[in-house]
């Protein structure tokens, strides 16, 4: 009875000290190596970010964006490779016949192939996104996905072979599978353009308004704070559209990539102030006029009812 009882215990101890321990060491080694790769990738991306923010340039260069995205992709691929190799060695150490799994794995691979078509498509699309440098870390993009709807807009925070993660203006995190992307609008590539439409009453002197807008553009370009964001002086394009009671003029400015929003807000404030000094009021849109008229009508009705 003692011999029979010692047999399973001896086998279990042998397995724990032998294949079990080897498998555990392989898993621990894979964990440490994956963490090392992740740490090294983070160090590299931090150095890229520090070099981009520490330079005199106000925006990241396209090369810095691409290096950051490429480092993220290589880190992700290295971690996947480490765990794939670790799983193979663990199975071999535990005595699982890996060669005998080739035929079942083939059948399973065919089955998974039909179910994982989207994942494969995401990875292939991500590969071309990175190699073609369509966008990178820090770019401001608008991504149109399959099925239409409103595009996903925001700043790129992460790009890998499967997904793209954006941060919207409202602080929301938007995750887009790369295989679902059908159109990308990069708003921060090489240079950008701030477009400001100025609606004025049709009774206003259009020539004088255009002169005021040119003066606003010249003063903005001479301002040291805006001068470093502008590639050239803002230009007045002229009358953009006509309506019964308003004339719409447009002023445009070429800016550094991603700075068009800041420049646009500043130009609108300058235009509103300059036109108010000239006694020219900015026209509200027809929809706003209708809403105001309806509100006034409701107030009159309530006043009449109260009386």
From TrEMBL:
Membrane topology of the entry: Multi-pass membrane protein
Predominant cellular place of this UniProt entry's protein: membrane
Transmembrane segments: 20-37, 73-91, 97-116
Residue ranges of domain Mechanosensitive ion channel MscS C-terminal in the record: 195-281
UniProt domain Mechanosensitive ion channel MscS: residue ranges: 119-189
One GO MF term attached to the UniProt entry: mechanosensitive monoatomic ion channel activity
GO CC field: plasma membrane
Family matches, as Pfam families: MS_channel_1st, MS_channel_2nd, MS_channel_3rd
Domain Mechanosensitive ion channel transmembrane helices 2/3: 79-117
Keywords: Cell membrane, Membrane, Transmembrane, Transmembrane helix
Compartments it resides in: Cell membrane
Domain of life: Bacteria
Family: Belongs to the MscS (TC 1.A.23) family.
PANTHER family membership: MODERATE CONDUCTANCE MECHANOSENSITIVE CHANNEL YBIO (PTHR30460:SF0)
Name of the protein this chain belongs to: Mechanosensitive ion channel family protein
Organism: Modestobacter muralis
């Amino acid at each position: 009875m003692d011999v029979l009882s010692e047999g399973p215990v001896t086998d279990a101890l042998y397995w724990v000290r032998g294949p079990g321990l080897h498998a555990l060491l392989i898993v621990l080694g894979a964990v440490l190596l994956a963490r090392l790769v992740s740490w090294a990738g983070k160090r590299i991306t931090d150095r890229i970010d520090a070099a981009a923010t520490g330079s005199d340039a106000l925006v990241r260069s396209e090369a810095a964006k691409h290096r950051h995205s490429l480092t993220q992709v290589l880190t992700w691929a290295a971690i996947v490779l480490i765990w794939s190799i670790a799983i193979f060695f663990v199975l071999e150490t535990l005595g699982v016949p890996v060669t005998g799994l080739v035929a079942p794995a083939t059948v399973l691979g065919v089955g998974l192939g039909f179910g994982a078509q989207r994942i494969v498509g995401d990875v292939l699309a991500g590969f071309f996104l990175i190699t073609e440098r369509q966008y990178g870390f820090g770019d401001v993009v608008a991504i149109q996905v399959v099925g239409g709807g409103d595009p996903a807009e925001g700043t790129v925070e992460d790009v890998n072979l499967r997904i793209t993660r954006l941060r919207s203006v409202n602080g929301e995190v938007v995750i887009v599978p790369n295989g679902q992307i059908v159109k990308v609008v990069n708003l921060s590539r090489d240079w950008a353009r701030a477009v400001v439409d100025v609606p004025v009453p049709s009774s206003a002197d259009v020539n004088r308004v255009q002169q005021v807008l040119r003066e606003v553009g010249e003063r903005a370009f001479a301002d040291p704070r805006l001068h470093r964001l502008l590639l050239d002086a803002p230009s007045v394009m002229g009358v953009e559209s006509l309506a019964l009671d308003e004339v719409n003029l447009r002023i445009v400015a070429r800016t550094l990539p991603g700075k068009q929003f800041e420049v646009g807000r500043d130009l609108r404030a300058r235009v509103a102030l300059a036109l108010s000094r000239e006694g020219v009021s900015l026209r509200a849109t027809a929809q706003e006029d209708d809403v105001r008229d309806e509100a006034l009508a409701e107030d009159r009705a309530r006043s009449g009812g109260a009386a």
